[in-house]
Specification:
The complex is a heterodimer of chains A (244) and B (132).
Chain A: E1 5-12, H1 15-30, E2 34-39, H2 46-57, E3 63-69, H3 74-80, E4 86-90, H4 99-110, E5 120-124, E6 141-147, H5 154-157, H6 159-164, E7 167-171, H7 183-193, E8 198-201, H8 210-232, H9 235-240
Parallel strand pairs in A: 2-5, 2-6, 3-4, 3-5, 6-7, 7-8
Chain B: H1 3-19, E1 25-36, H2 43-54, E2 63-69, E3 72-74, E4 81-82, E5 101-104, E6 108-118, H3 124-131
Parallel strand pairs in B: 1-2
Antiparallel strand pairs in B: 1-6, 3-4, 3-5
Classes of the chains: A alpha/beta (244), B alpha+beta (132).
Chain lengths: 244, 132
């Protein structure tokens, strides 16, 4: 007979992933870049949006992309074509990127460039509205896309994704005249599960709304940089933020 | 089927916990999880993948006990707690306010572990010597 001991842990089930995500973020902060985790269902227009946004932003921002895809490198090739360094991370069976995969992608990226020269690092996640919401990769901001063709109820059906997002982009708004969909209702549902997020309506085809989206990005980049610079000014924080 | 990846992550988190006890080795009887209703985890799938994953590992035979924590929101207009539902767009039934504050339901937590601590396994040489 034995009495089992009990350890009260209160440890996150995903603690191992979180540790790696924090490790990634420590690097991002050392390099003073803003890392964005871009998530949506397949076909919402993540790659199309980046194809449109990256050339506009590249005038004054240095960027790179870590491109998650289950099996192909098609999206990575599309983004390479606009002249931005891209590392493809093929996840195989996994339907999301996790922090270790992003760490692997970073190692490949560092063989090509010095990340300290970057302003923005994009992580384009695998198309999926469920899993990526729970797996942090070390990002500073989460961006979720929802296209008008997906219907009005998606924020209610996949609430965790939209709750976690800092910014939700309603995409493909150029298609609105052809669809029996109420964009006000889509936005209402997003705000019902996440009243604090920024919602921007965009079209990568017509270019509508892209200025607002780019303004938001620049603001967040500036806010994050200020926070990163304040941290590096504090000696004790330097120790805490060092290589583990 | 991200419960497979969740389980892998849980096993890694458990291995980190195990190392705290080195050189002694804990024999785990039960792992108690708290899983919020407002997460992307399906508890039944997590239990099945756990059973397969621990097979033959140091956690072989350990049970997974899952406590589901309900989703509770707080209405910031009248300060009452409520159970948000997709039918009501997660809004508060009292004041029709959006789900601003989540009180519970986002948990993905290893609450506790029941285990027996055994001394370091003797080397095969010593085991044989005792047996003969």
């Amino acid at each position: 007979m034995h009495m089992p001991l009990e350890d009260k842990l209160g440890l996150n089930l995903l603690a191992a992933n979180q540790h790696q995500a924090e490790h990634n973020r420590t690097h991002f902060d050392e390099w003073q870049l803003l890392c964005l985790n871009v998530m949506s269902s397949p076909g919402s227009g993540k790659t199309s949006l980046l194809e449109r946004s990256l050339p506009s932003l590249s005038a004054d921002l240095q960027m790179a992309v870590l491109e998650g895809d289950m099996t192909t490198q098609l999206d990575a090739e599309r983004l390479e074509a606009v002249g931005i360094p891209v590392v493809a991370i093929t996840t195989g069976r996994a339907c999301h990127l996790d922090a270790a995969m992003v760490s692997g992608g970073l190692k490949l990226l560092r063989q090509r460039l010095d990340p300290a020269g970057l302003d923005l690092l994009w992580v384009e996640n695998v198309g999926n509205l469920v899993c990526p919401a729970e797996f942090e990769v070390g990002e500073h901001r989460k961006v979720a896309l929802l296209s008008v063709t997906e219907g009005e109820d998606k924020p209610l059906k996949y609430p965790v994704m939209f709750r976690e997002a800092d910014c939700v982009l309603i995409t493909k708004i150029d298609l609105l005249p052809y669809l029996p969909v109420d964009i006000e209702r889509i936005e209402e549902h997003i705000r019902a599960v996440n009243p604090r997020c920024v919602v921007i309506r965009v079209s990568a085809t017509s270019g509508e709304g892209l200025e607002d989206w780019h303004t938001w990005l620049r603001q967040e980049r500036a806010l994050n940089l200020t926070a990163q610079q304040q941290v590096t000014c504090q000696p004790e924080a330097l120790v805490a933020g060092g290589e583990r | 089927m991200h419960e497979v990846d969740m389980t892998k992550c849980l096993l890694l988190s458990m291995s980190e916990w195990r190392q705290q006890h080195a050189p002694a080795s804990p024999t785990v009887e039960r792992v108690h999880l708290q899983v919020g209703a407002f997460t992307c985890v399906e508890p039944a799938q997590l239990v099945s993948t756990w059973r397969i994953a621990v097979n033959g590992s140091w956690l072989d035979g350990a049970e997974l006990a899952i406590e589901i924590i309900p989703l509770l929101g707080r209405c910031l207009v009248c300060n009452s707690t409520y159970s948000p539902t997709p039918e009501q767009a997660y809004r508060s039934p009292c004041c029709d306010h959006p789900m601003e504050e989540i009180v519970s339901g986002r948990e993905l937590r290893i609450r506790s572990v029941d285990y027996v601590l055994t001394a370091t396994t003797p080397s095969p040489h010593i085991v044989n010597a005792v047996a003969s």
